UniProtKB/TrEMBL annotation, chains A, B:
Keywords: Isoprene biosynthesis, Magnesium, Metal-binding, Thiamine biosynthesis, Thiamine pyrophosphate, Transferase. Its cofactor is Mg(2+). This is 1-deoxy-D-xylulose-5-phosphate synthase. Residues 281-446 form the Transketolase-like pyrimidine-binding domain. NCBIfam families: PRK05444.2-2 (NF003933), PRK12315.1 (NF008968). Belongs to the transketolase family. DXPS subfamily. PANTHER family: 1-D-DEOXYXYLULOSE 5-PHOSPHATE SYNTHASE-RELATED, 1-DEOXY-D-XYLULOSE-5-PHOSPHATE SYNTHASE. Pathway: Metabolic intermediate biosynthesis; 1-deoxy-D-xylulose 5-phosphate biosynthesis; 1-deoxy-D-xylulose 5-phosphate from D-glyceraldehyde 3-phosphate and pyruvate: step 1/1. Its EC number is 2.2.1.7. GO terms for cellular component: cytosol. GO terms for biological process: isopentenyl diphosphate biosynthetic process, methylerythritol 4-phosphate pathway; terpenoid biosynthetic process; thiamine biosynthetic process.
Amino acid sequence: MYELLKKIDGPDDVKKLSQDELKLLANEMREALFNRLTKIGGHFGPNFGMVEATIAMHYVFNSPKDKFVFDVSHQSYPHKMLTGRRNGYIDDEHFLEDSGYTNPDESEHDFFNVGHTSTSIALALGLAKARDLKHDNENVIAVIGDGSLSGGEAMEALNVAGDMDSNFIIVVNDNEMAIAENHGGMYENLKELRISNGKSSNNIFKAYGLDYIYEEDGNDISKMIEVFKKVKDCKHPIVVHIHTQKGKGYELAEKNKENWHWTMPFDRETGKPTFDFGNVKSYTEMTVDFIMDKAKKDKDFFVITPAMPGAIGLSREQRLELKDQYLDVGIAEEAAVAIASGAAKNGAKPLLVTNMTFIQRSYDQISQDLCINNNPVTMVMNYSSFDGLTDVTHLGIFGLSVFTNIPNLVVLAPTSAEEYLNMLEWSTNQRQHPVMILIPGNEVSHRSADVDFSDINKFKMEQKGEKTAIIALGDFYQRGEELAKEINAKFGYTPTLINPRFASGLDEEMLEELKKEHSLVITLEDGIIEGGFGQKIASYYGTSDMKVKNYGLKKEFYDRYNPEELLKELEMTTSQIIDSLR
Amino acid sequence: MYELLKKIDGPDDVKKLSQDELKLLANEMREALFNRLTKIGGHFGPNFGMVEATIAMHYVFNSPKDKFVFDVSHQSYPHKMLTGRRNGYIDDEHFLEDSGYTNPDESEHDFFNVGHTSTSIALALGLAKARDLKHDNENVIAVIGDGSLSGGEAMEALNVAGDMDSNFIIVVNDNEMAIAENHGGMYENLKELRISNGKSSNNIFKAYGLDYIYEEDGNDISKMIEVFKKVKDCKHPIVVHIHTQKGKGYELAEKNKENWHWTMPFDRETGKPTFDFGNVKSYTEMTVDFIMDKAKKDKDFFVITPAMPGAIGLSREQRLELKDQYLDVGIAEEAAVAIASGAAKNGAKPLLVTNMTFIQRSYDQISQDLCINNNPVTMVMNYSSFDGLTDVTHLGIFGLSVFTNIPNLVVLAPTSAEEYLNMLEWSTNQRQHPVMILIPGNEVSHRSADVDFSDINKFKMEQKGEKTAIIALGDFYQRGEELAKEINAKFGYTPTLINPRFASGLDEEMLEELKKEHSLVITLEDGIIEGGFGQKIASYYGTSDMKVKNYGLKKEFYDRYNPEELLKELEMTTSQIIDSLR
């Protein structure tokens, strides 16, 4: 087991192997991928597809002098195995040493910590620019999947690359998929290029001024070595368009590429997940039910997503059922927001769906294209919580600081299933406001909730008490409830408990009212404190006698943390807050 | 004078004119443009180039049923003249009724209030999507300049458009320029298309799956009418690539397109501005001097800009002199940040230059590509102030709320020429932090300043006093000084005056120290209060006895305001603050 792989301490050891041994190495690497992915999950399809190309890259180029930049870097596991990090795959005790993305802290063969799409060409262009200023001569190689090409940042960089006159190699790994199926006119062109074996005169890369070479057998090591040898030390920018099979080497994944883009721990024989999700209906399932029902009832309603139907688990069958009430624009967060704004302007009712970390890319479009124009778009953001995605590149904890400070945008933070669904219904029917709704990151709660949210910034006092008022936002409401109970139990009085519902503004009337019988306001929010919800309240009470204590995360790039541990570190568990109140 | 134009109350009146009259109308419209622009300034080249095409659009299509969406909309003056708003051009008393951009509040012929680039295709796609859902049948026409095509949002939308199968018309107004010269591989392709009269088989639009038609004489009304008639009611997406002359009809502007993209009020005979800038050396001039000097001394240093050398007034001659130490990536804020990050990672010292309002587009790249990776890039942002650009689409007042909440990013707010230059020097030499420097928006001040800022978040106490501490950030420091003097004069004690220098963190030691002899902290900042600098201080003192009063702008989309009047409205002039202290 892993006989060859165990001898690979770095790229030099790859270069020593014969062509036959390289093929055996590929098999061992797939076994190593199975070992890790069946046990702790991760990106499946992208890594299984890139085994051969990665071996060839390390065989031909001299990393780290020659520099590889992987897009999203969810396909970089094979690269990691070949650059001294095989133990993260073959030795269970070392799994957690390797992140799921490239990481300069792990290895000199990694140049960037990335996780968002469409960045590799631009980042690599920067490496090349510095190389040229220094009159160095290494190869710089950007690797990007076909799905990521539709992102604005990638195309901006293609255009800049077209102006270069020094070494720059862009490996386009075409597996005919984004996470889900690709969307957009360029994918017809990629298909033409594949069919014509790269000969089609209609060629998007050449249109950007780039040289171009095609290799159909992206999973054939010898052919990949040949093609990389051709372009090595090339003195101008060139695209190496390779055709690979996503999920290659696992029949289930080859057949259902979307489901096997990323996987939870699973059983290799059956492909089934190896743990039980339980029977609780999740917030995402509710969202899907809402969508399917709403679409039937209201023909002006449609779902729009930048390649993230999976953010709420909208299946391929459901998408087909929605027909023209579903629009996947491909990886293109900026265009998604602008299109939604335009559609709302012309009378449609768009519901935009993705993860909080990805919508960050459209800050400017949300501000300018949407909110200046005040069009009624509803944006539903999954993973808006500290508890969910904990990779530094996928944190949802910045959303409050980014989006609650945009004028006109109504940011809603529901505290229960009922409130979430009522907010969805209200928002998709109203015609006055752009709205962002944060899907709770905690377990599904049930409480009765209002149905009308048109009284913007009206907080809800759930429990009227005295001395201390707890304002607990969104999915931290249950923490507020718990704290209120503990205060009662420990200090013998009933504090006031408020569900603000609106994260983007203050209920000044209620805040004034609180001054009468309260001397302390505690705010709880699921995000960094800086720029978020609680600081607005601290500022509001700044010149009064009211004391304000803001609880939330620190402005920091946390990485792969244990959520409960983090709360302890931040001294914001209920018992710690009680202690500090003493 | 304006005989024909005075009869145009809307597009129907355009349709009544003969071809000869349409030509006379074009002449009158140019006169009207001169009338407005010589007197109050505005976008020159884009409007002079689009007169004929706009007449033809209104002649052929039926606005507002057929819907025009203009990119940036800095070329929409002719459209405004033909849609009931001629008085904004021919009658000086009505100039201020019209904004410099499209505006739905002005007319039903405008659909969006826009000012940033590269948005028109996506916004128009939204209109078309809603049309299709409603089974309506109007034409939707996006107009975009060649310069704006390089922006990611535009290319994302081209890709989405390629998937459509209903009416969608993209007019690419190719005048061979962005504000400055174009940059990027696609511009070679546009040139090929122009030279081949649209016949080149290498065609970026076709590569995106779009139908395509070329018209060389974009300034010939008859030909433009012909081409628009051809595409009207087309049932699939099509690009109408037209070649126009930027600044057509004014020799000076035809010869120097960059300088005449936008103009201050000027004398028509000489082209000279009609008011005196004075002799004070501006912050932008200092920046240019710094750059030219630094580039000579340090070969790792380079300037990178997303098509905005004009943000600091870097001339064509200076750009040429900088050679490979200058990189204009075209309109591509996202790629610009990522390229700068990559270059810094590989040892270069990039200085990124643009306006605050435009860098908003790269929030995600600054957070992910740059700050997670903590690469030493310096970003210099002009118009980071409430006093400067006052169009709602170009406000610099959101920068503090957007960028001070990103971990690792050091946001520096200088208070004088000396401090600004020292910060530039320090930042471009250090290798530890991504840094954003806000160019002051007030008159140039001179004060001695530190040269080392490596003690991150170390505030500077400029005057030690008692009772009240004024923390005055960046270009509001001088307001803080004035307030300190007035407090002394009116209340007979010396307040403490602090220049925080760092907008992105707190000097907790100093804040603790203040508790001893102060009961009130006043913060002053040049931006919205929400999410900005002062609220961090209010939160810090939340549970202490210190009172905190935050002064700044409200979270609001202000539009074309008088800066001094706005401060009065916000009750934050020095005398108003003094009154509130009584």
